[in-house]
Amino acid sequence: MKTIDKLKKNVEDSYGFKIKKWKIIKYVKNSSVVIKVTTKEDKKYALKSLYIAPERQHFIAISEKMLADKGVSLALPISTINGDLLMQFNRFPYVLYEWVEGKSSQLKHQKDLESIIDAMARFHHASQGLYYPTGITIYEHHNWKTEYKDRIHTMERWLVDHKSLKNKNEEIIHQYIHFFIRMATKALKALENSNYDQYVKRPPNDKTLVHGDLHHSNVINDNPLKVLIDFEDIRYDLPSKDLLRIYSMFTKKHSFNNQSFTSMMNTYERVHPLSADDKELVYIDLLFPHIFERMLRKKKYIGMNAKELEHRIKQEKRKASYIDRHYFLKNRYKDGRENSA
């Protein structure tokens, strides 16, 4: 029996239905697979595997299940006939999800951004106070201080490795990189003077889950709801991680302006208000040039034309400059030290 036939039989035995149609939607060798499964009763599901450790996949699925129980609109993981949220095949875990019909969200207008931010904030708000069953490994982001230092090193290393500029894109990066290193250094110093160490010590149920890859293609329009999908990077972290991702996608096609940024933050906090300490950390993280640094580390700039690259970098610079002026220069830490010190 072929591997694919064995997988089909495993699915049928695990979930108690017969398969009518089987269509591979996505396959990346040694990375992920997504299969559309249609049963004899014409029910549709998405079968997924990330080829990751079972404990990580279990954390993802149980998080999705608990979020759905708290009213978050997402693709629900389906339990096997034995009550498990995943099945094993060839050493890897697979999860069966509800099939979500609808089109991906758009980011054509400010209202599109605000609609996604509203759904994001509702998910974040619902994620607080979750209690995981005994034995579930809980995943959190690694230490920001270490991450910031590593990311600053990436930018400094790029300068060393590109003393001789070979093309227009490298010239554009060189024009802006010193600004971003300066903002990154300021953000690191602010982080070291913040209450971040106290945040790290808080239990997970007093923190927020983040999606980790929340862009508009992972938000499905199912009127009147927005359904979140693809939680493969879910973890406990501060909301800035999802805010950074979606806002960078918005400014791919739009120019940064104060109104769009403040509207995003106001929309978010109407649903999920942040404490003073958490807000301070969120703005520190929004100041740090994550998007710019990722362009260098992942070499994303190589595949861009010069116009596209300069547009994206300019928007990141405008965002950082705005946050620096309107948050860090106007606020002081509780002990009196300036955020911009």
Helix fraction bin: 40-55%
CATH topology of the largest domain: Aminoglycoside 3'-phosphotransferase, Chain: A, domain 2
Biggest β-sheet description: 6 strands, antiparallel
Question: What Rg, in angstroms, do the CA atoms define?
Answer: 22 Å
Structurally, the number of domains stands at: 2
| Tally of separate helices | 11
Helix/strand order, N-terminal first = HEEEHEEEEHHHHEEEEHHHHH
Mean pLDDT: 94
Termini separation comes to 67 Å
> What's the count of strands?
11
- Please identify the structural class as seen in this structure: alpha+beta
The level 1 CATH classification of the largest domain is Alpha Beta
User: Do you know the CATH architecture of the largest domain?
Assistant: Alpha-Beta Complex
CATH homology superfamily name of the largest domain:
Aminoglycoside phosphotransferase (APH), C-terminal lobe
Quote the beta fraction.
Answer: 5-15%
Shape: globular
